[in-house]
Structures are given as C-alpha cells and as structure tokens.
Amino acid sequence: MADKKIKLTKRDRFNVMWHSQFLQGSWNYERMQNGGYAYSMIPALRKLYPDKKDLSAALQRHLVFFNTHPYLASPVLGVTLALEEDKANGAPVTDDAIQGVKVGMMGPLAGVGDPVFWYTVRPIVGALGASMAISGNIMGPILFFVIWNIIRIAFLWYTQEFGYSAGSAITNDMSGGMLQKVTRGASMMGMFVLGALIERWVNIKFTPIVSQTPIQKGGYIEWDKLPSGAKGIQEALTQWNMGNGKALSSTKVTTLQDNLDSLIPGLAGLLLTFFCMWLLKKKVSPIWIIIGIFVIGVLFHVWGIL
Amino acid sequence: MNAIQMILVVGVAFLAGMEGILDEWQFHQPLVACTLIGLVTGHLDLGVILGGQLQMIALGWANIGAAVAPDAALASVASAIILVEGGQGTAGIGTATGIAIPLAVAGLFLTMIVRTISTAIVHIMDAQAKKGNWRMINVWQWIAVCLQGLRIAIPAALLLAIPASTVRGWLAMMPQWLSAGMTIGGGMVVAVGYAMVINMMASKEVWPFFAIGFALAAIKDLTLIALGAIGLSMALMYLALEAKGGNGSGSNNSGDAGTGDPLGDIIDDY
Q1: Chain B partners of A122 at a C-beta cutoff of 8 Å?
Q2: What is the 3-state secondary structure (H, E, C) of chain A?
Q3: CA 20 to 30 Å from A245, out of A205, A296, B100, B137?
Q4: Quick check: is B263 in a domain?
Q5: Backbone dihedral region of B63: left (phi > 0), alpha (psi from -120 to 50 degrees) or beta?
Q6: Is B161 within the bounds of a domain?
Q7: Cβ pair A60:B192 closer than 8 A
Q8: A297 vs B185: CB contact, 8 Å cut-off?
Q9: The whole model's pTM is what?
Q10: Which of B 36-95 lie inside 8 A of A, CB atoms?
Q11: Are residues B170 and B44 in the same domain?
C-alpha cells in the first residue's frame, strides 16, 4: 500500500482547517475535545489511509483525550498532519509518538491562547465595537465581527501551515522563548487596555451633594437681564462659553462625584474592580458578585447615594 | 412580530447557541447576537445599543478550562427578544441588561446538560471509529453541534410563544426605582469581568502598564484605537529593550551608551 507517496494538498489542509472550527462541538466531560479533533483530522485521514483497517486505527488514535485553546489546536493539527503523512508513507512513526506530540503541545499552547485571545484581543476589539455600538452606531458590531474573524482565520491557517511544514521540530520552539514572549507582550498590552477600560467604562456616579455655595454676582448668568428671544439665547450661550464662562445658576452645586473626579477620575470604578478581584480570589462565584452588584445598585439608588 | 421574523430569531438563537460552545465566529457575543436579533425584528438600533451595553459586561467572560463563565449566548438572545417585545424602546435597555444576568446563569446549566449528552455521543464515535466509518463520525459531530444550537433556540422559541402583551405587562409592573437601579447596577457590573481578566493576567511585571493605561484614559481625546496603539508600542518597546539588555552578555545597560542606536538612547534615559 505504501508503494506510492500520498501527499496532502493545500486543499486537504484547508479542509482540515475548516473542520477545526468545529473542534469544540462535541466538548464533553470525559475526553473534552476528542471528538472534534478526530472530526478535524477526517479530511486528511480519509486520503492518507484508503485501507479501512488503517483508517479505523487512525480514527481511534485521535479519539483520545485532547484539550487546548480552540485556536491553538491549529499548530498541533499541523504537526499531526505531517506525522500522519509520514506514517501513511511508511515511516516508522508510532502511535505513542503522535500522542506524545499532541499531549506535549496542548498544555503550553492553552496557556498562550487564553491570555492572547480571550484576555487581550477579544476585550480590545470587543470594547472598541461596544463603545461605538452604545451610541447606536452599526459600525460597532460590524467592525468587531470582521476584525475578529480576519485575525482568527488567518491565525488558524498560518499556524496550521507552520506546524505542518515544521513537523514535530516545533515542539521545542513552541514551549520555548518565542511563544512566551508573545504571551507576555499580550499580557502587557492587555493590562494597559484594561486600565483604560476601567477608567472609561465602569460607571459609578455618587449623587450626594457635598456643598452648595452662592456664586458672586457676575459669576453666573443673570437670566432676567438677558434680551428676549433668540438674541437672549445667543447671549446666554456666549456668556456660558461651553462651561468655561459664567455659571448657569447662582449657586455652585458640588456632588461627591465632582470631588472624586478632581482627585482621580474613575477612582470609584478602580476600587470596585479591586474589590471584585479580592472577592474572586476568596473564591466567591462571579455570578454572586454580579447579582450582588445589581442589588447594591438598586438599594443605593433608593437611598439616594447613586 | 410575524412568522418569518420569529423563524429568523430562532435561527439567530441557533447560531448563537452553536457558537457559544465553538467560540469561533463569535455569533454568541452580545455585540453580534443582539444586533442580529435587532436586524431581523426591525429594531436594529435597539439591538445595536443593547449589544454594546451587554458586550461591555461580558468582555471578561471566557470559556477557560474548569472556570465557570456566565453564558453570553442565552443572555444576549433572550434579553434582546424581551427588549423588542417589551416595546419600551431605549428606555427598556437598562431593564433588559438586568434580566440578562440571571439568564446567563441559566444558560450555564443548559451547557452542562448538553456537554454531558456529548459524553454519550463520543462513545458512539468510538464505535464508529472501530468500524472505520468516518461518515458517521462527521454526522455525530454535527448532531453534537446542533444540540448546542438547540440549547439556545428552544428557550428563544418558548420566549417568543409568550405574547408580547404579556411581556409588556410584566415590564410595566416593574417600578421606576427598580429599573433605574438596575441601569446603575449595569454600569458597575462591568467591573466583575475586568476583575476576572486581571486576576488571570496580573503579575508584578505588568502592573505598571495597568497604571499607565488607567491614567491616560482620563484624557478623553484619546480614542480606544489610540490607546491600543500606545499599549502595543509600550509592550513592544519593553520586550525589545529587555532582549537588548540580555544580549549585552551580562553587562548592564550602560554598556549600550553612545552606539547611536535609538533604543540605546532610551535605555540611557532610564
């Protein structure tokens, strides 16, 4: 059977990549992504093993436990494709060798995928889209969808190709310096953006009034002395000067929030985030924290604090 | 809502359910799911705004190993349907956001049920593999994916079966202080997602990046894209400088002085 060389074409490898998008489809508590992995390999295995007995053995070989980040499975698939191709062409590749490569790569790769994709790219692209969407801009969801999927498909394809051409040699590269650098860089950028997001998007406004001081005459707009009609509006706007000119009323109202903002804008959101981190570290379920925050939001609103 | 719209909504829900587990195209993310439901029901603007709100809350939710993240798919689909049926317009968004949270929890249990069923499915795959029957493995993989789709499509269909007038009645019963309070809660709850992400990523090395990001964000002229560019540049600079320091064969950074290299000059400034 191994007389003539069987080669996987670009088209076969593309099919594998396409299938790998369903990697988590049969995610289960027993062997996690095993069904998806076998499913992803099928387009290649069918071609490599025309003999039914070989195909059966190959399918069973890939139905063993597997779990990693869904996108980082692509380089593993690439390497496995190269190994299976060698095996089908008669090279002495043992089942253990294939299994060893898969297990050896899945752990370190999962550790790269989570910080890079779930904690850096998705929060950034998601926040970009969401901040546009909140004001009703349809470009928000479109940008999110397009940018994310371009990044994702390019990643799936090129890392799978990289794994395929490098073969098992990349196991060392992967767990070594290069990937660690990417992960660390992603964490740095991720933390930077998180800091920015907390400042911008955790909304807490304390409403209690701290002080009400009368403003000296001339410091505020004297509404009864303005000319009537459109002229008056124009005059008022000129005096107000986008908030930089005269005040709108004769007393200056300072809320607790104004005081906090002049100190550190976004401080309350930051403290709330730190408090949540502390609770999470104390193993409080995020769901209880979320429910708790809603309860506090309602109670504090009723009491007039927020 | 007419029959075609209902079918389309259930279709969107099915896609969201599939993606909730596959995590590839992101149809389950609120930004996409709510927008699509808004689109097919003719309330595109409502869907987009709700999607944006929920996306902010769900930014840190991720399927990682054993960690339990709330289910964004059911939350976004169901709250979008309620928002559209409620007919309160943008005023209903705060309430819809509040309703989304318990739904996200309910979705979790549905996921667990389907994942347990999948355990049985892979055993069928084992049997088919023994026979070398690759077609049936494909089929069972699709069945498993479809079950995940039904996980959201069925609750969505049930929700659609409730007449819009009933949904409106429930929402009208909700007092103003409760919905206003929920809107405030929705503004704060974002912090939980961020806290989850920070707990995963934080190390001594990266905290300064967090501090700089927080400080710079107060400058409202900087867009998110600008902030992203600054963050990326700083991370690249940090790694480049670090590598350079390492290449100096153990000598400290002052060894790079006077090379005319811009990176060297930056090191000198430190």
Answers
A1: 59, 62
A2: CCCCCCCCCHHHHHHHHHHHCCCCCCCECCCECHHHHHHHHHHHHHHHCCCHHHHHHHHHHCCCCECCCCCCHHHHHHHHHHHHHHHHCCCCCCHHHHHHHHHHHHHHHHHHHHHHHHHHHHHHHHHHHHHHHCCCCCHHHHHHHHHHHHHHHHHHHHHHHHHHHHHHHHHHHHHCHHHHHHHHHHHHHHHHHHHHHHHHHCCCCCCCEEEEEECCCCCECCHHHCCCCHHHHHHHHHHHHHHCCCECCCEEEEEHHHHHHHHCCCHHHHHHHHHHHHHHHCCCCHHHHHHHHHHHHHHHHHCCCC
A3: A205
A4: no
A5: beta
A6: yes
A7: no
A8: yes
A9: 0.82
A10: 44-45, 48-49, 51-53, 55-56, 58-60, 62-65, 68-70
A11: yes
Q: How far is B263 from chain A (nearest CA, A)?
A: 18
Do B19 and B85 lie in one domain? The reply is: yes
B122: chain A residues, CB-CB within 8 Å: 26, 28, 30-31, 34-35, 63
Set of chain A residues whose Cβ sits within 8 Å of the Cβ of B68:
285-287
A232 to chain B, closest Cα gap in Å: 32
User: Which residue is closest to B195 within chain A, CA to CA?
Assistant: A277
Number of structural domains (chain B) is 2
Tell me, what's the ipTM?
0.83
Tens digit of each residue's pLDDT, chain B (270 residues): 789 999 999 999 999 999 988 999 999 999 999 999 999 999 999 999 999 989 988 887 776 555 557 889 999 999 999 999 888 888 888 888 888 888 888 888 888 889 899 999 999 999 999 999 999 999 999 999 999 999 999 999 999 998 888 888 888 888 888 888 888 888 888 888 888 888 878 888 899 999 999 999 988 888 888 888 999 999 999 998 988 875 544 444 443 334 444 554 554 554
**Do residue B142 and residue B212 come from a single domain?**
no
Model pLDDT for residues A121-156, shown as the tens digit of each residue = 888 899 889 988 988 999 999 999 999 999 999 999
Measured between beta carbons, which residues in chain B are less than 8 angstroms from residue A274? Answer: 195
B234: domain range? 202-245
Q: How far is A13 from chain B (nearest CA, A)?
A: 17
A24 and B138 in contact by Cβ < 8 A? no
Q: Which of residues 169-198 of B touch A (CB under 8 A)?
A: 177-178, 180-192, 194-198
- Looking at the fold, whether B206 and B151 belong to one and the same domain comes out as no
B217 and A127 in contact by Cβ < 8 A? no
The verdict on a CB contact (< 8 Å) between B116 and A34 is no
Same domain, B209 and B112: no
Looking at the fold, whether B96 and B148 belong to one and the same domain comes out as: yes
Say if B256 falls within a structural domain: no
Does residue B97 lie in a domain region?
yes
Q: Nearest CA of chain A to the CA of B259: how many Å? A: 26
Inspect the interface and report whether the beta carbons of B132 and A21 lie closer than 8 Å.
no
The pLDDT tens digits of the residues spanning A174-211 come to 555 677 788 888 889 889 988 998 888 888 888 787 77
| Domain boundary assignment for chain A | 10-201, 209-303
